[in-house]
Amino acid sequence: MRENRCAPDTTPFRGRSWLGSLLFLSALLGCYSVPRGRHAVDQVEIVGNATVPSREIEERIATAPSSRFFGIWQGVVFEYSYYDRFVVQRDIARIERVYRAKGFYDAKVSAGRVVHTTDGHVRVEFLVDEGEPVLLEPVRLTGLDSLPFKLQAAATQSMSLTAGKRFNEDEYEQAKGALLSTLTNQGYAWAELHGHVEVNLVTRRATVVFDVTPGPRFKIRNVVILGDEGKIPEAPVRRALHIDPGDDFSTDDIEAGRQALLDLGVFSDVEITWGPGRGKQGTAPPVNDKGEPVIDVTVQVTPSLLRTLRLGGGGEIDVIRTDIHGNVGWEDRNFFGGLRKFSIGVKPGVVLFPTVLPTLHAPNRLLPEERSRADLRQPGFIEARTNGLLRGEFNIYPVLLRPINEQVILGYREARGSTGVDRNFFTGHLYTSLLGNVQANYPFTYHGPFDKTLGSVMLRYLDLETDLNFRDNATHPHKGIWLGNNFQVAGFGGDIKDLKEQPDLRIYVPISRTVTFAVRTSVGFLFPLNYGQALEGQQTSDPEGFTRDVQLLYFRAFFSGGPNSNRGYPFRGIGPHGAAPFFSPTLSANQVLTQECNRFSPTYDPTVCAVPLGGLSLWESSVELRFPIIGDLTGAVFADASDVSRQKTTLRMNYPHLSTGGGLRYDTPVGPVRFDVGYRVPGMQKIGGELDPKVDGDPGTILGAPIAISIGVGQVF
Hints:
Layout: H1 18-30, E1 40-47, H2 54-58, E2 68-69, E3 73-74, H3 85-101, E4 108-118, E5 121-129, E6 135-136, E7 140-142, H4 149-157, H5 169-185, E8 192-200, E9 205-213, E10 219-226, H6 234-241, H7 251-263, E11 267-275, E12 294-303, E13 307-317, E14 322-332, E15 341-353, E16 365-378, E17 386-398, E18 409-425, E19 430-447, E20 457-469, E21 480-494, E22 498-510, E23 516-528, H8 543-556, E24 577-578, H9 589-596, H10 606-609, E25 611-612, E26 617-630, E27 633-645, E28 659-666, E29 673-680, H11 693-696, E30 707-713
Helix pairs in contact: 4-5
């Protein structure tokens, strides 16, 4: 008899939620039956594995549970995995091999049970008897006597094999690689390493023996670059490579040079080799006129396109704004020679106002906006691997906040300029940049009267950024860690003086080969030196100064909420809220503060009295589980929490603003396009109380639910 595990429930839809109906339809469309004579695997269990995680074992065997759509509904959309006793027998040998590699030479595995769960479905259990592990004896190392004492010590310390620890094949191979790398980094290009392991099964002891033949210590004789066919100027390539005849041979220097060439952006691939090898010319290496052994380095490059034209467009819709825009860009990676990189991009667009989610009212105003940027990067500035940077921007944009103000639509014309340097260290793992920035903003209104107390804002600041990157992939990180920090000092002329600091930590943990658990946490601290009084309260003897203060906070304060932050809130939805008199310019600032925005006033208007002001202290934290669905479509479930405080160095953990939700990502050539829905968890916005919308803002609802919808490009973190 064949079974249909997804037979539809014929209970009427009446009283069910729309979500239940959607799940019903999904299951109905995606179900099929287990063929007669076959058994679908519902679950695979590893029993008795105290040392090796089940996940690691399951990745090495062929027997696997049936796939689950979104990790929940078995049998929907995807094929079942079927039980095969011959495959199970081979899996037993695979598991025992995994244990041998971990030092358990006596490990025995049996398929203890194949349990029939329902008709046509089984659960497979592998029973493991790990036995006693094999422990390491002290490593025996030979062949280093001819080397300098310091190098002998460095070679010995490079190995991570410690007597008394359990033997592990992966650690053994890593120790071999580390020892050989230590020698080649010090010029011993012909170094050879032979290792073997002597295992005594009676005493359960393993002795690792490494026999090293270092060979001569080399200097570099020639550096030959092949593959560019005259398309790429050679001088800046050699400068970035920074490996010259007469230098000591070092594989670390070679890898750093390879990464530096890739960083130029003009090569799709770089491969560096050296020779002659030991077997090609016997044991006698070539020598220079000083009698020193020398070796040649060959750099094989694959040039990429030097010029790129970009044409495109797109749109955005959320609870704050709806827009459509174009995108035009040009990039030249050999601008006037010297491998200078010049790029320019223009993004014209129009905001359809006040069309937003969820109302989708027809637009009654079109708000033109524009963002343009030009960058010039000079490689080999000051020294071989430091880049000189020059950047300019001109932007026109509306200031759109929630709640939406239809009476006064404020906008800014913005000009920015930056100059400085950046550099990669440690083969690209550490990135640093130091930029001097000048920014000028000129307010205007798209609609409504303009508050004459609003003036232009001039900002000059230094920006130091450092990023430590040990991720396996920048676009789709699966494992690793990223630690960044941004430090700014403003006050070199202009209207703003402050210090601003924000470190950011991201960790990626593989749950399986395709599932990733990601964590992000960040804090930020702002120390204003000539503004910030508006956050202390709305009672002031200088209303015009209050207006100016609110304006300066807009450009420098911390905000939270939105597609790259807390996804249960709209953009800038988390943080102190208060009065912004320039949204009601027909009244004096004093009238706005003392009358209209009095909390008990019958004329209280949140579009003027409860707008985001920003804060001086920020914390944000997110966890996300990322998993494949089908093809280029992946999914994620997440939890975000954050808060912004009015006070300096004050992190309010009793205001978690917790939101949970899920989303979809679809891979495109410019990165994954994502769609997220975040739900604000009741009772977890403020511990022990409720948020005050007049102080903390009102994030609004969609279809009556406390949710926010966000669309973006690239991973959130």
